[in-house]
Amino acid sequence: MDSQTNSCYLGFDFSTQQLKVLAIDERLEVIHQNNVLFDSELPEFRTQGGVHVHGDRLTVTSPVRMWVKAVDLILQKMKNNGFDFSNVKALSGSGQQHGSVYWKKGARQVLNYLDPEKPLHDILQDSFAVQDSPVWMDSSTTAQCHNLEAAVGGAQKLADITGSRAYERFTGNQIAKIYKTKPEEYNQTERISLVSSFASSLFLGDYAGIDYSDGSGMNLMDIFSKQWSEPCLKATAPQLRDKLGDPVASTAVLGPVSCYYAKRYGFPNDCKVVAFTGDNPGSLAGMKLKEGDIAVSLGTSDTVFLWIKEPKPAVEGHILCNPVDCQSYMALICFKNGSLTRERIRNERAQGSWELFSNALRSSPMGNNGNIGIYFDAMEITPPAVGVHRFDQHNKRVESFSEEVEIRALVEGQFLAKRVHAENLGYKIIPGTRVLATGGASANKHILQVLADVFGAPVYTIDVANSACLGCAYRAMHGLVAENGVSFTETVSRALPPQLAVTPTPGAQKVYTSMLKRYADLEARVLRESKQ
Ligand code: XUL
Question: What is the pTM assigned to this prediction?
């Protein structure tokens, strides 16, 4: 084989519980996978699920040196498994979103001269001003969120700038808390990275810029100008612009890998580091989403990923810069009442049997004769309301539905909600739109049929195991040609396409266009009434 066919690309994922890596070859086939589990393989850091939950139950951190040591370990494991680093043309990666790393004054110098005789965790042991990095599970910054929204003129205003209203886990609010509670450490900080840009800094041997896409999860960046927002910086902490460095395009080649990796592991000297990004943006790349597509993950909570051209930020959901196309955006919407609610209705109305549940879907008509149900067993995120609400064809509240009507009302209601909230953020179904379904319930064709009918688009199923890693291996490959105008979609066109599961039933569009409007009005009514 010539060297061209041996070429490969690495994608890392610094997730909450583990560090993962995956290698693909030129044909986009996965040729190697490895991982390091934080709790069991790095027990000296005493994490549970990769984190420390502090006494107030709200503060959640991870030891930054654990992540550094995980890099030593994963590269060593790859080497022990005979992985040939000399074929790696480019690498990229992702990190859990929102987490922050505080590099101490002088750390850049240390990064620039990494001694290949030593492991990273020895070299960098004194390089952090804050040892315990706040992560996305932290929800201790409510005061900082109020302060930020007030400073810029309210929640919608903040969303108009940064793509999201203030969220406790978002990095700006975490930085504001560090500044308030650890002013000395803040002053000692030379550079603040996200988990993703911290990870790319390790490979680059220099501070790596925060990419536009993960940078959109900070409540600090103007997602339209792709620059830090002065009013947000000002409301957060002093000298923040210098500590953050300039944001970079998500597709950018940051430079060659540090010679540390060439000498210690045998990477080629010209192996490129492509900007790292957040894990959700990484997954969007791994799912090979295209303009107009929508990915629906049907799990404990249901998550929707969208590719959007003209976003309309709102006080619900998140708009992020798109990680594979700088002209576009992506949106993330989380619905709390997913499979637990589907299982409750299956247990109560279909004797616990998915078969009976599916039979009910098959034998009931599209549009459910005008009956609509909203099932928020737990306080919903999108929208923030709770309770079970049933309406008949005249929008009149009713106490109960028959078994068959209830089952269809639940599934239709869940999918109508997804479409309504996606469209609220600027999503448009276009010719060629695909719905990509993943997660437990995506195995049920009858549920997928309702999904196809409500969206009026074909539904494909995809396997998203390690999608963030895979997406970043694709991004590494794309980074090398992005400057020449080659699109990400073109780069991944050789990968296996998703499986077509179902197509919309004729007549579906007519039924659901009017139902969508009714659903939106009824949901707004539920929200209004719940606030009274
Ligand atoms: C997204 C979020 C999580 C983390 C998990 O806003 O907080 O999905 O990215 O790794």
Answer: 0.94
